[in-house]
Amino acid sequence: MSLITSKEIFRKAYEGKYAIGAFNVNNMEIIQGIVEAAQVENAPLILQVSAGARKYARPTYLKKLVEAAIEDTGLDVVLHLDHGEDFEICKQCIDDGFTSVMIDGSKHPFEENIALTKRVVEYAHERGVVVEAELGRLAGVEDDVNVNAKDASYTDPDQAVEFVERTGVDSLAIAIGTSHGAYKFKGDPKLDFERLEKISNMLPNFPLVLHGASTVIPEFVMACNEYGGNIPGAKGVPEDMLSRAAKLGVCKINIDTDLRLAMTAAIRKYLVENPDVFDPRKYLGKGRDAIKEMVKHKIRNVLGCSNTL
Ligand code: G3H
Ligand code: 13P
Ligand code: ZN
Q: Quick check: is 82 catalytic?
């Protein structure tokens, strides 16, 4: 039971054609809900921290909370930086003891992305830390993704091979039509599986990563809205598409929005139904329970990594 890198769990996931959940963490209740679910499901786990989460909770708290979770559950956990935007934040996290970092150079031109990623890989590998990079841009709901726009923003398979060879990166986030947040598609959800298959075939035994992979389960959006929320038109990635991606070399699936919705729905419901309660443990506890149920569901029914430890 310790902080581990994703090397071995990705190798097993790739061979077993399942994916590992990478869940975003911001506070104690979220961490507890996630690790308790992974413990029940006997599943490998990646906890990821964004720059925003570091700012909100402050770096020391999240690191210590993850260490506490490991001690409490006896689980091995990958502690990962999500969307590191420059060398400095990656370096800070590596120096702080993270076992995995993402350098997200996807907004830069190809050569700059390569140079930045290479620099992080060098620093990380010397210290036994693994690196995820990103090539291609995630689609936004505002984007009208026609064929030309798709070619410009989705990951190019030839470039992906060159990128991996030249940077020595350990995993690669690809763009095939997902996007962050609760509003992923205007019309019917659609991912470019042909492209994914091509990338996967051209990069054998190499772990791919899917960001923006929340399903935005209608039940939870409705539950939020029923208790005073206003989240119209939210739409995410259908779960069967995620299971399909897991069979095509996607070893890490990033989920944040679904946890936010589950936690918020539970807390809204509790507060509306119990207007006289003002003990934060009561409603945060409901939020934690909701996170646990959501993560159990993802691990068991979507990612397929139950009982793979
Ligand atoms: O990809 C972004 C994650 O959902 C983290 O979001 O930057 O609001 O913490 P955040
Ligand atoms: P969602 O917003 O779809 O949960 O994606 C989260 C993510 O990709 C974090 O990096
Ligand atoms: Zn992301």
A: yes
